[in-house]
TrEMBL record:
Superkingdom to which the source organism belongs: Bacteria
GO MF annotation: an example: DNA binding
Domain HTH tetR-type: 21-81
Record feature DNA-binding region, as residue ranges: 44-63
One matching Pfam family: TetR_N
The UniProt record lists the keyword DNA-binding: yes
Keyword DNA-binding: yes
Keyword terms of this UniProt record: DNA-binding
Protein name: AcrR family transcriptional regulator
PROSITE patterns the UniProt entry points to: HTH_TETR_2 (PS50977)
Organism: Lysinibacter cavernae
């Protein structure tokens, strides 16, 4: 079996970027706490700005909409570097490559993990946000499917993609999504990204047993 790369560390930020990130995180935390205490509809941008002691201009420069402040990057945005890592990873096993990608996404601070759990509860209590979350998840699936399609094209030395290749790519992404759903408890609670890979690998082995032809057939 090919060794699996360790989850990558986030690059260090400059002073300005750190301050911007800290302010963004502070505003997000306030927005999430307000919606947790009230409801999404009753919390206004004015309320968030007043509690965070920022101007509306600053708020909209950072987020654009109230929804973006409340939902944040959930599911997380995928960077060009992460896409390239999927496409160019030298391992033969595409599912293992996607497991590593998810482990890196799950490399969260305790603050981020707490925010994720609060946002999950907010979505359940405010169904109007569910449509937005599903749209974000669909967009993420499209991005990952495209990356896997490019990966398969590279691995097989094809000059261009095909419909069958794109279908195979979508199947890879959907399989990983199902394994992730099965491993939700680990995804939400574990602080060690390597545990995500272990949980997904165990779920994969179980799925393989379930999908294996029965001896009686």
């Amino acid at each position: 079996m090919t060794d699996q790369p360790r989850p990558s560390a986030a690059p260090e930020l400059g002073l300005r970027e750190r301050k911007q990130r800290e302010l963004r995180r502070a505003i997000e935390a306030i927005a999430v706490d307000l919606v947790s205490q009230h409801t999404y509809d009753t919390v206004s941008v004015d309320m968030i700005c007043e509690a965070a002691d920022v101007s509306q201009r600053t708020f909209f420069n950072y987020f654009g909409t109230k929804e973006n402040a409340v939902m944040g990057d959930e599911p997380p945005r995928v960077s060009d570097e992460q896409i390239a890592a999927i496409v160019d990873d030298p391992r033969d096993d595409t599912l293992d490559v996607l497991f590593t990608f998810l482990a890196n996404l799950n490399n969260l601070t305790q603050h981020d993990r707490t925010m994720r759990e609060k946002r999950r509860e907010i979505v359940f209590r405010n169904p109007e946000l569910m449509k937005s979350l599903f749209a974000r998840m669909d967009a993420l699936e499209e991005v990952l499917s495209d990356a896997v399609s490019r990966r398969l094209q590279r691995m097989r030395g094809l000059a261009e993609s095909t419909a069958a290749l794109r279908e195979e790519a979508r199947m890879n992404v959907n399989v990983v999504g199902s394994l992730l759903k099965f491993s939700t408890d680990v995804w939400l609670q574990e602080s060690d990204p390597a545990s995500t890979i272990v949980a997904l690998s165990e779920a994969r082995r179980l799925a393989a047993r379930v999908l294996a032809p029965s001896a009686s057939t």
